[in-house]
Write a structure and sequence with these properties.
The protein is mainly beta. An 8-stranded mixed beta sheet has the order 16-17-18-19-1-22-21-20, with no helix packed on it. It has 3 helices and 22 strands. The chain starts with a helix and ends with a strand. α1 packs antiparallel against α2.
Length: 283
């Protein structure tokens, strides 16, 4: 049987099957038989970081909060002091708002079984939730989590955030599109690059301090991106977070970024991770 994290990665992105196969080989052929979740931090470095001229920062853990280890985390955001999270997988996708200190679920809705949930964004009093290959965005009332609208779009949905005026969306490619929240019409787009090298697999997004922060799927790094040009302004290396996870934890990839603008606190987690980490980094 393949390690659980490898299986989850294959179901996520068929278009990057070659990358997934290489990763699976690394998992299966390890001499100790351990799964990908047990690879030590820095064992397989992100190749762009070997060549980047952008600054690389590390993050300090300020506090550790509980997280549902059964949650296949797709999107994360802070709203009125609560952590809102979307999860994926067909028949298991949810949208929930939780207490950050305890992990207690305050409100939760199940997505219709045909939808594979992806990233979320808060705009005014609504939460927008992407779906992976259903080409449909679900719109919820932020206070009640009552579904109020569905919007169609072309292509895959991965990450979603808001800059206060637009919705910013990724699809696994190096492109981030800016959409009108009402019509979902594409207003403009940026191509993310580190120097002359495109950066793809842009997953969960968060708009923080005038920058776009993006998880890179299958990597323990966050890219800090200029919303004007798409240029990578810097990298945050989060590989050290795995030292806080049990050696036998059945965890998957790093995914999930949230920022509490009122307190300037930043939170990160991963799929099936038992913790949400409150982090601090220096530029």
């Amino acid at each position: 049987m393949l390690p659980h994290s490898c299986y989850a990665m294959m179901t996520k992105n068929i278009k990057t099957i070659l990358v997934a196969l290489i990763f699976i080989s690394a998992c299966v052929l390890r001499p100790d038989g351990a799964g990908a979740e047990n690879v030590l931090p820095g064992k397989i470095p992100f190749s762009l970081l070997m060549k980047t001229e952008a600054p690389i920062s590390s993050a300090a853990v300020r506090k550790i909060h509980p997280h549902d280890a059964g949650a296949f985390t797709q999107g994360l955001l802070m709203m009125d002091g609560f952590l809102c999270e979307s999860t994926g997988l067909l028949g298991q996708s949810t949208l929930a708002c939780k207490e950050i200190e305890t992990g207690k679920i305050m409100r939760q809705v199940q997505l219709p079984p045909e939808f594979f949930g992806e990233g979320i964004a808060l705009f005014k009093n609504r939460i927008y939730l992407l779906t992976w290959q259903n080409e449909t965005a679900l719109v919820y009332d932020a206070a009640s989590l009552r579904e109020i609208r569905r919007i169609r779009y072309k292509g895959e949905g991965w990450g979603l955030t808001s800059d206060g005026k637009n919705l910013l969306m990724s699809d696994g490619s190096p492109v981030i599109v800016f959409r009108d929240p009402e019509s979902f019409k594409i207003l403009r787009s940026i191509r993310v690059s580190d120097g002359d090298r495109p950066v793809s697999r842009l997953n969960e997004l968060e708009f923080i301090r005038g920058e776009i922060w993006a998880n890179i799927y299958m990597e323990d790094v966050i890219a800090r991106i200029s919303p004007q040009t798409g240029r990578v302004l810097g990298w945050i290396d989060l590989s050290a977070l795995r030292s806080y996870l049990s050696a036998n934890a059945r965890v998957d990839v790093l995914n999930g970024i949230a920022c509490d603008e009122k307190t300037n606190r930043v939170f990160v987690t991963g799929k099936y991770w038992p913790h949400v980490f409150e982090i601090q980094f220096s530029r």
